[in-house]
Design a protein that fits this description.
GO terms for molecular function: oxidoreductase activity. It contains 12 helices and 10 strands. By secondary structure, the chain is α/β, with parallel strands linked by helices. Helix 1 runs parallel beside helix 11. It starts with a strand and ends with a helix.
Length: about 325
């Protein structure tokens, strides 16, 4: 595993980040422990979660993924070796103050996450989305207090628009508070415009480290789907609608060719393309099993040629 600085900061994180949205949803606790163990054995040190994971699973109130990670950290005794990231913003209760980025909810949310994770600090605390009902200076001052109290060490954002990120950076500079040093956007070979149209320039200019989620397009870029045999389920129909387009199949075909040329696999090639982009710190990979994880772990070792990168750029261009 290779390591990269987290944006402009001095913190070193693994070039791949282990996502845990599936803990308590499609992955049981035993399998989750096995995947986290394998990730650490491969020298991965960066794990991402959120307080809301996996609230959309039937009967899941949220917080389950954090609880699983907390039990794993206690059993393994390796907290100081893990760069732990979590997020807040989405509803965690029925009260109007059980969501958002107000001072109240931020303070309540960090205490709940620390309790579930069985730790006294979060390495990277992230706003899961913006909050139009709360002034950005209130949000950043609350995060700043958490950093001063030693409860968080770095701050990040997820799903922010370019103007929202710029507003936050401007507010932090003006008021001398903690700033967003990372951004989690959806970014992959198929979904490029959302990040590249405006966010890319902001992140490169201001040293914001990019931690892309859905880097394999919900599994489409792993090559497990076939044009004439798409599985029939509610979740996978969403994959088909988003990614299994004519251009999507063309992109996947090029990925498969380069995987063959590099004696690798399509997951690793798709991730390697991301890692070759400016400002990218660590794509977030998901895995329900150790076998799935291993196919992605090869990505940091792949050296795509300029010609191969140009082919992928060309076939996936949104311009």
């Amino acid at each position: 595993m290779k390591y990269r600085n987290l944006g402009r900061t001095g913190l070193k994180v693994s070039a791949l980040c282990l996502g845990t949205m599936q803990w308590g949803w499609t992955t049981d606790e035993k399998s989750a422990f096995e995947v986290m163990d394998a990730f650490v054995e491969a020298d991965g040190n960066f794990i991402d979660t959120a307080d809301v994971y996996s609230k959309w699973a039937e009967g899941n109130p949220g917080g389950v993924a954090e609880e699983v990670i907390g039990r794993w950290l206690q059993e393994r005794g390796n907290r100081s070796q893990i760069i732990l990231a979590t997020k807040l913003r989405h509803p965690m209760g029925s009260s109007p103050n059980d969501e958002g980025l107000s001072r109240k909810h931020i303070i309540d949310a960090i205490e709940a996450s620390l309790r579930r994770l069985q730790t006294d600090y979060i390495d990277l605390y992230q706003a899961h989305a913006s909050d139009e009902n709360t002034p950005i200076d209130e949000t950043l001052r609350a995060f700043d207090d958490l950093q001063r109290d030693g409860k968080i060490r770095y701050l990040g954002a997820s799903n922010y628009k370019a103007w929202e990120l710029m507003e936050a950076l401007w507010s932090a500079d003006k008021n001398n508070t903690i700033r967003y040093d990372t951004l989690q956007p959806k970014y992959n070979l198929i979904t490029r415009a959302e990040y590249e149209r405006e966010l890319k320039a902001v992140c490169e200019k201001f040293g914001v480290g990019v931690i892309p989620y859905s880097p394999l397009a919900a599994g489409f870029l792993t090559g497990k789907y076939q044009r004439d045999n798409m599985p029939d389920s509610k979740r996978l129909s969403s994959v088909a609608n988003q990614f299994a387009t004519e251009q999507g199949w063309k992109i996947l075909n090029e990925v498969l060719k380069i995987a063959d040329e590099t004696s690798s696999n399509p997951s690793a090639v798709s991730l390697a393309w991301l890692l070759a982009q400016p400002a990218i710190t660590s794509p977030i990979i998901g895995a329900n099993s150790v076998a799935q994880l291993k196919s992605s772990l090869a990505a940091p070792e792949i050296r795509l040629s300029e010609e191969q990168i140009k082919r992928l750029d060309s076939v996936s261009s949104w311009l």
